[in-house]
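Practice problem: predict the structure.
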Amino acid sequence: MSEAAIEVHDLRKVYDGRAVVDGLSLTVPRGSFFGFLGPNGAGKSTTIRMLTGLIPATSGSMELLGLPMPAHEIAIKQRIGLVPDESLLFDRLTGPEFLEFVGRMYRLERVLARRRAEELLELFELADERRKLIGEYSKGMRKRIAMAASLIHKPELFLMDEPFEGVDAVGARLMKDILLDQVRAGATIFLTSHVLEVVERLCDHAAIINAGKIVAEGSMDELRGGSETLEDVFVRTIGAGGIHEKRYERLEWLA
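Answer:
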């Protein structure tokens, strides 16, 4: 069995002649909590969409759980859980209906899918909203139901694009605890987030992408070095020659 949960070599995605992901190479160890960081438009969501087979790569190679993508796309998808940035949910279904549907899509028996759906609703504190359509959910509730759906088939690898966005502090803490439990049980989590403090607390490895290229990668200790925070590393790496060297000039009327 491959020691890497994700192995990417020279991955490129070109739109209208512009490389959104440009020669990306990345290794995500099995059993790690891996943070994938970068500014807006750096290529994070595009990378996740290629890893999940939602869009094809222009060139390069990808292996997930030891299997090449897209040659083994179906087998890979059966073993991964996805929380997308855009909530790809069915607004005309209730939470229980949606979770049962996802379970059935992963070939769980109907009775098992229904039981796990009920258990996940309780776990994510959505049981009291069981009659509400997903279209009536708040953004935080939509994130919770999306994460519940990603868990129902007990995947080995999670791909998560901004999973805590719009989630309140209590809901976020619950979701973090669940994810940490999954890593302790042997799963791998590949996570994007703009909240660097969250990544610093949760992740043991991270990579920083900018303009479609990896500009820093390693264990959290390797990235931070001495007394730097992850935010220090991020600003220094992404902002070289840019924002961090620019003096903040107060507007007179804000003084």
